[in-house]
Amino acid sequence: MALVKLYDASNKYRQQLHNELTLAQSGKKASKQLVTMAAANHLRASADVLNHGSGKDKLLVYGGKDDAVAEEMVLSIQGYLLKTKLPPITKESDIAQTKVVHTEQYVRIGGLADPLFDQGAVAVLAIHQFLESRLGSGSLQDMDVKQEQGHIVLDFHNRYLTPRSEAAVTSIIPFPNDYDPRHILQSRVTDEVFTTNNAVQFYERVKLDGSSRSKYQFKKSHPTALSVGQLVEIQTSFAVVPRGKKKYMLINKLRSICVLDQSIENEINQERIQAALRKTSPTRKVKRNVGYEDDDSEVEEAREDVKCMRISRSESP
What we know:
Helices cover about 30% and strands about 25% of the residues. It has helices at about 1-10, 10-25, 40-45, 115-135, 265-280, 295-315, and strands spanning about 45-50, 60, 75-85, 105-110, 145-150, 150-160, 160-165, 190-195, 200-205, 215-220, 230-240, 250-260.
């Protein structure tokens, strides 16, 4: 229902998204927006590749830094939530059919053909080309530009688990119990672990009480608070992972999701309430007698009747 509403009123919601994209690209964190990497020359000047060796993951990092520790390049993009596969895991079909380590968290967002959102897709293509130029021509699988309803969409993924052999000891953290309350995934674990690299953060933007429209704070949230149709901001990084002999695939890695607006959700709820009210049967008048206002006279009448009955009996032969 949310998607139907989103596409039926696409002009209205496209404008809302456009406002968010414009605000983000002119704000304090403009340099952290995905669209900034659509310009190939800017990308080459800003980025580098952290190479862990042949047959291992490669990571897009900020270049030109003298720090001993490389900084992962994390970029943001705003869009409408179209598909989700997020915690909690509640059924067997939530588990990957190939290997348990392939079980993932996943979202898809769309921009309703807004040109600023589409520039985000251009940026992902530019990142793909940059990584391939660093790893060697033909080293990356071709990237498909995906569409829904004729509009460009972007997918983001992150696995729940990492093979222990590939995880740094300091990165291993406890698996959140509420992510797998029935232990469907954890019961299949052999030598896999949950790490900081697998963790996805969830937030909600909340307007400060009594403030102007532009004053917000960001609160920690939970994956169950997300639903299709919400306007969200995704934070993503970019990794290439092995896929066959000397081949890699680019992954838009899901780092965090923040709910920015729930207008569609609220409107649908209002419509459901109004529809329920319209279906309610018309109220019929009902007579109700409560109290004892008339009972005294009735009792007196009954007593008189009893007296008459006694007199009649005494007068009879």
